[in-house]
Amino acid sequence: MGNLIRAEFRKIFTTKLWWALLIPTVVLALGWSWIWAALATSLSDKITSDPEMQQLGVSVNTLPLSVFGFARAINISTIFPMIMGGLALSSEISRRTITTSYLTAPSRVSLLTSKLITYVVFGLLYGVVITAFASLGIAIGSDKALLPDVGGWALMASVGILETLLWTLLAIGVGALIGNVVGSVLTLLLYSLMLENLIDLVLPGHWAGILPNGAANGLTGSVASKIFLDTVPPIENPTLRDGVERVVRGVSGAAGAFDWWASGLIFAGWMAVFFGLGWLISQRRDIT
């Protein structure tokens, strides 16, 4: 197994794909979080300096508005590790190098297990990079008072790394099912960036949070919403409170999502389904 894992790492490191995807990951995580944080700072300054808001006693310059940029940056940046996962098996199937891999490995199970271990490592690596540069982006773009506390940041970083890992593994399954590089990448990108967003427009209540992208966004978005709402003074009116929560969840990218732990379980379930189906297909696929 050790030799197979080393071979999988060698396959990745001898190509330019891993760092070709890592560079835009860094740029997107840093840029997206910085833009959102800068907008939050500008909005905070505008509201705080507005005479009417001052008369009403409204002040937002101590609320952790930057967490919305943190969550949004993590969610969008996962498209690159997702692409990497989608190519894990589909590229070998398309080029027919999977035949050699199967024939030289003791069994298909051992080969697929070595790929799983290898891409778990890369999923975690990308997750750490994404959360690190998203953190840097909000630190640069926000006033210090708008940043989350250490506990909030640690929870956001943890669920961000988990989301990245789950997307990577889910994409491996999709790539194995489709077995084509272009088809796998297009399917993953079109679904995550466009199709599910269109479906969400017609889904009521929490239905959006049951779908893969909604559940994934719910991991970070629900945490960001909780961090923000915990700093807001209690709202006694239940209707107003529910309305504020819906708006905050929408801003954080978690509209219709469940709590972060429930979203994580739902997304892990989707990952298990696609990865499991990809595993079964790979076990039975004709390589002649």
From TrEMBL:
Keyword Lipid biosynthesis: no
Signal peptide annotation: none
UniProt keyword Transmembrane present: yes
Source organism, top-level taxon: Bacteria
Membrane spanning residue stretches: 21-43, 63-89, 116-140, 152-170, 177-194, 260-281
Keywords: Membrane, Transmembrane, Transmembrane helix
Protein name listed in UniProt: ABC transporter permease subunit
Lineage per the UniProt record: Bacteria, Bacillati, Actinomycetota, Actinomycetes, Pseudonocardiales
